[in-house]
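Suppose a colleague, Dr. K., hands you the sequence of a protein chain of 118 amino acids and asks what its three-dimensional shape might be. Before reaching for any lab equipment, you can write down a predicted structure in token form. Begin with the sequence itself:
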Amino acid sequence: MDEMPDVGKVALRTARFEIGQIVKHRIYPFRGVIFDVDPLFNNTEEWWQSIPEDVRPAKDQPFYHLFAENDQTTYVAYVSEQNLLADDSGDPISHPQVNDCFRGMRNGRYVVADKTTH
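The predicted structure, expressed as tokens, is then:
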């Protein structure tokens, strides 16, 4: 089991991006809409080590879960804050799961869908 950082000893940063915001990767040609945020890295060590060292992000920053797309496909991405930029194009995201979490766009951002409980 991977050891997680002791949050009590780590100064948490305020996330720069918000759920529903459309972002693009700083290096790679993909964009997406944020559907969840981890205040610190919360994936496996194996995943982190698989990133080339010259572009491997620091773990002590927010990481974002995205419904992502590129020219060929849609997928779910996990991206560090340092590698994201705001996407102000206003273009929607074509990922098929967008409608599961959001109820359309307003002012260039997705609106979180109301949760129903039974």
